[in-house]
Amino acid sequence: MHVRTSVISFKVHLYPYPYPSDAIDPGRLAQRHLNNVMTSSSSAPHASRYLAYDPSNVFACIIRGDLPCYKVLETAHCLAFLDINPVAHGHTLLIPKFHNASESAAVIMDITDEQCMLWMKELPRVARAVQKVTKAEGITILQNNLAAGGQEVFHPHVHIIPRFANDKLIRIQRNHKNADAAAAGTKQLAPEDGVNTAALIADALKASDESHL
């Protein structure tokens, strides 16, 4: 049986609000980001294990109030607003708020457990509101990290995307029979690979109890 899959590349919100004429120039923001990323982590305000945090990134500017957004929720610890380049009506972003340089992080791997909890605890509520307003038949939650993972704005963020049957957005078909998996362009996990990989990840998690991963 041949299984067809539909995959799109999400165009990510480099600037999630139309810039007013007196706002910070997006070209200057982009150049500043590139300059800061090229700077060594030792000279950055937050020495990240994965990527130096750039405080001039567009989401940081929105949090500070330097740039506007279509805000749907703000708490002491997070901000939710509409994506300016939505892949679907109601496409919303949820981001954590960093209050000083020492706690700032560019990717989710560098935020603390407490930061993640305070950020993510609002995710179900925002998702429910998006689904209610858009009458979506489903919701996709997407979170990208680092350039290879599809991240373009280097401040952790979650996409909340309304979904409908046959909307032709990203859809991964999973099948448990080898023949169907091959037809779908996927490969079933080999038992040896599953055992070894699971053990390595479990060991890494145990090690993180003694020293933060």
TrEMBL record:
TM stretches of this protein: none
Pfam families recorded: HIT
Histidine triad motif (motif): residue ranges: 155-159
Superkingdom in the source lineage: Eukaryota
GO molecular function: adenylylsulfatase activity
Gene3D superfamilies: HIT-like (3.30.428.10)
Biological process according to GO: nucleotide metabolic process
The HIT domain, residue ranges: 58-170
Active site positions, chain numbering: 157 (tele-amp-histidine intermediate)
Name under which the protein is recorded: Histidine triad nucleotide-binding protein 2, mitochondrial
